[in-house]
Specification:
alpha/beta; globular
């Protein structure tokens, strides 16, 4: 049913000096063959932006002797489709978003976490100790969290966007210079929120209304993408893009003319997690990697280097004040109260997929 961009068939060797900046140089990443899952190798299935910190990866390899390799994906749907098709047997650690964790549990894809093998999990903020998507973190460990919103060029768009309606109100000016994520639930959820409904609506009439609004906007869109918008907005081919907060903050650090905003209507609040595949060929390596990332110093460095909001209280306490007070990274409570987590919707997911297919294939 799913119409998606072609799966990113690249594997990055993330060990020693051969590590590449995967999130930014996908064209240079070469495919690897004959994955073996040896004990001195750990294969990750992860988002493109989570493998860019070379020094931390090298340190892990130096400390453990385990070489890290990664297969990259740009959406939860792509990840899950590969796992369900039997293509995930080589991976020990996967990085699903919160709402996909429950689905992966239901489909028997995950191993239950052995809590006695974890070090530092008690340092998580209280709200991440017992999340609704995975009570008591039985199958997943929070890795990072954030919001979904807009990155825009403030030198051109001098009046900043304030809500999702901005795209519709300014579609003539923004014609072919705006993009939405290549993500069914995020895109439909944003429009549902704009219409005054829940991000997690199960009402087909409401979902259809969102589809019709998206059909109005589609001729003015440059496309649906989760990664390619970076080059478009940096080159000036795009002026505004729906994106994840961490991706936007990374660009803003280098190019201050770009700004990130959370729509006033509210948006999604997401957590990306670490899970261990039921078929993990190297579970010992998986626990070593999770424990490494749970170290306060490591998690804090990831926040600084990769603009990833840490769910770790001890890590947050180590951050310089400018990071702790960065509301793009750590939004105010007032904004968070308007946000919703994306929830698995059972059979209603098929309704979303049907309308998404119509939207993206027409």
């Amino acid at each position: 049913m799913m119409k998606r961009k072609e799966f990113l068939k690249y594997l990055a060797a993330l060990s020693g000096l051969s590590i590449t900046g995967c999130g930014w140089k996908l064209g240079n990443v070469k495919a690897q063959a004959n994955i073996t899952g040896q004990r001195d190798q750990l294969y990750l299935f992860t988002w493109t932006q989570y493998t860019d910190d070379k020094e931390l990866l090298k340190t892990f390899t130096a400390q453990t002797g385990i070489k890290l390799l990664a297969d990259l994906y740009e959406s939860n749907d792509i990840m899950l489709a590969k796992m369900l098709a039997g293509g995930g047997g080589a991976y020990s650690v996967i990085y699903p978003s919160d709402y996909k964790v429950q689905e992966m549990i239901d489909k028997g894809l995950l191993s239950e976490i052995q809590r006695d093998r974890l070090v530092g999990v008690e340092n998580l903020f209280p709200q991440f100790q017992n999340p609704s998507y995975d009570p008591n973190n039985r199958y997943s460990i929070p890795f990072t969290w954030g919001t979904t919103g807009f990155i825009y060029n403030s030198e051109v768009l001098t009046i900043p966007p304030s809500d999702w309606e901005y795209l519709w109100k300014n579609r003539d000016r923004l014609n072919r210079k705006m993009t939405l994520l290549n993500d069914t639930r995020e895109v439909f959820g944003a429009v549902l929120k704009m219409l005054g409904y829940s991000y997690n609506s199960t009402n087909e009439s409401e979902i259809k209304q969102a589809y019709e609004k998206l059909q109005e906007l589609k001729p003015s869109l440059a496309g649906f993408d989760t990664d390619a918008w970076r080059n478009k907005i940096l080159s000036g081919d795009s002026l505004i893009a729906m994106c994840y907060s961490g991706d936007a903050i990374k660009i803003m650090k280098e190019y201050p003319k770009f700004k990130y905003i959370i729509p006033q209507n509210g948006t999604s609040l997401w957590t990306d997690t670490l899970v261990i595949s039921k078929t993990a060929p190297n579970p010992d390596g998986a626990y070593a990697w999770i424990n490494y990332l749970l170290q306060p110093e490591v998690s804090a460095q990831l926040t600084i280097n990769l603009s990833l909001a840490t769910p770790n209280q001890a890590s947050f306490d180590l951050l310089p004040k400018k990071y702790q007070t960065n509301t793009s990274l750590f939004p105010d409570e007032e904004i968070l109260n308007k946000c919703e987590r994306i929830s698995p919707l059972g059979d209603t997911d098929e309704v979303y997929e049907r309308y998404w297919t119509q939207l993206t294939s027409a």
